Amino acid sequence: MSNSPSVKVSHVGKRYRLGGLEPYRTLRDKIMNIARGQNGDARQEQIWALKDVSFEVKQGEVLGIIGRNGAGKSTLLKLLSRITTPDTGSIELEGRVGALLEVGTGFHPELSGRENIYMNGAILGMSRRDIDRKFDEIVAFSGVESFLDTPVKRYSSGMRVRLGFAVAAHLEPEILVIDEVLAVGDAEFQRKCLGRMNQVATEGRTVLFVSHQMEAVQSLCSRAIWLDQGGVVEEGFPDVVIPNYLTRSMSKVSTVDLAKRSDRTGDGLFQVCSIKIDDGFGRALRTGSPARFIVSIDSKKAVHNIAHAAMRLVVRDKMDRIVTSLGNEVTGQEIVLQEGRTQAVCHLEKLPLVPGSYLLDFAVRTNGTLHDKLFCAATFDILAGDFHGVGKGEHLGLFHLEQQWTLK
Amino acid sequence: MITAAKSWGFPDAREIWAFRELLVILTLRDIKVRYKQTLIGILWAVIQPVVSMVVFTLIFGKIGKLPSNGLPYAAFVLAALLPWQLFAKALTQGSLSMVAMGPIMSKTYFPRLIAPLSSVLSGAVDFAIGVAILLCVMAWYGIMPGWQVLLAPCFAVLALAAAFSVSLWLSAINAEFRDVQFALPFVTQIWMILTPVLYPTSVVPEQWRWLFTLNPMVSAIEGFRWSLLGGVAPDPLTLVVSSIMTLLLLIFGLVYFARFEKSFVDRL
User: I need a surface site. Which of A27, A269, A330, A375 has the fewest CB within 10 A?
Assistant: First the structure.
């Protein structure tokens, strides 16, 4: 790893006309505007998708770009991959850039898998010789050997994605720009992709990687940059930036008013109005650290008899598998709902779940009567942590178990 | 180095050369895909010019009795239809190419000029098939081409260059104003009427000749026909004017395109 910057972004800004984002304008519109004595462009509202963004990436570094939707991540990638040009500032790139913003760019449905490998490879900037050399590897990685001469339109969407990623994974530019390509395919294939990404990252290539999967950023990137509203909020080690980002976005999640949700079932006597999730100190969750779920419930009508409630939080992972459920009925602990607002707290001493994104479903009953049920009442991320207290461990499977190893 | 460059200039020729393999692959793709999922496939490339030739010969040759420089009208019209269709298809495909490839261009970078270039080139196969048919028609009428047949490729290239130059403008404009794709059929139709495809230049009144010859396709068509069938050679002065016109269109087209391509994706 050398110290020379491989990517240097200086004061880059990109402006979009809001009107320009419409599908298309016709010549007539423009003539009408001119006829009315209006300059169509000046009248339109402009937004800065990126404003005064500067950073450097050293050769061999893997930079993760994080931020919520609309923060400017995709625009930044488009500038880095030369798809469009900035309105202010400059970008210096040392070496060939390969952009993976989509899986299977340029696939033509009428062409065979084989032809599309060459097509897609050429579009991504691979030479015919490169593709020839890696052809067998690509085919083996994709797992579509027996369909190579079938037109891609007859492929299942999964096959198409696998073939697309297989080509992309064998691209070897000096600078690789990647956007969320991992968010496709089944779990098995995602693991394969992550493994391949890891390999790419350790081969000394400079990688810029945009993802919403904090887990992936944390495990792949040596540095992270957090974008919000077109500007850089924080830059540094992923272990520092990601918790800050999640803590901030979590506080935003908790301000979302669940009371406004109408997709609920139950008689509505009691309704959940917020679920706050943290580690007990207002920070993001970590595997092996404490976790706290604070559920606030409002009674909608006057409640005369104090009610013994059964609450349940169902935890689903991003593959929509139910991982576990939390409930006071299971523990036999009593939660009494009062008139007005009740806050119930569920505390976990040591979170066993592996890092990743999770969803929460919520339900509350009294005496078997369902009052409120809300699917996807909250989302949260769990960061990699140290469950067994031995330094960073690996996180294979869904959760960790307390265990002792001895000799008999 | 990527900057907010707003300067005028030509597209980077070295870069396009570096992407020549992509150009070849895209051109081949257009050719391969064109007649996919049709019953008779590449036969369409035969039927199109043959049917046009028969229809035009019946209407304009037999009924309209248009002059044809003393050549059989069927051969006369086919020898002009081939470079014309080469031009018209290249113009249409080239003009629509940027928008057609928009989804790819918004996901990856390659020199944008590759898109119109490959669309223009992909018509070459149909043209080659057409020439083979023309040779058969010539054999039927017992027409032997002279030495000037060697110049035929130059006239075909002139037609392609004209189509490419104009499609540089139209493909850029089409990105912002889709009016182009509706206007294109009329443009090519009217342009064909203004070009000596169905008639020889000699029917154009003398006082309008100078205006007529500003159309670069006049030389391309007259020249191609002459190089294969003989007859009236194209006027050298007209040829020079056509070539200069094409060159000017090409130069300004390239400059306009180079300026426009940087922000192309934002305009789609």
Answer: A330
Within-domain flag for A111: yes
Interface probe, candidates A17, A53, A123, chain B, greatest B C-beta count within 10 A: A123
Asked whether residue B6 is domain-assigned, the answer is no
Count: domains in chain B: 1
User: Which chain A residues are within 8 Å of B179, Cβ to Cβ?
Assistant: 26-28
> Nearest CA of chain B to the CA of A269: how many Å?
51
A residues 145..184 contacting B (CB < 8 A): none
The minimal CB distance from B29 to the residues A90, A93, A119 is found for A119
B1 in any annotated domain: no
What is the predicted ipTM? Answer: 0.80
Beta carbons of A245 and A211 less than 8 angstroms apart: no
Per residue in A228-263, pLDDT (tens digit) is 888 999 999 988 898 888 777 665 555 456 877 777
Q: Residues 23 to 62 of A: which have CB under 8 A from any B CB? A: 24-28, 30
A173 contacts A96 by C-beta, under 8 angstroms: yes
B182-232: per-residue pLDDT in tens?
Answer: 999 999 999 999 999 898 888 888 888 888 888 989 999 999 999 998 877
The total number of structural domains in chain A stands at 2
Question: Which phi-psi region, left, alpha or beta, contains residue B23 (left: φ > 0; alpha: ψ -120 to 50)?
Answer: alpha
Using alpha carbons, list the distances in angstroms from residue A254 to A264, A272, A292, A356. Answer: 18, 12, 13, 19
Residue A352 lies in domain = 256-383
Distance CA A67, CA A135 (A): 36
Alpha-carbon gap, residue B35 to B31, rounded angstroms? 8
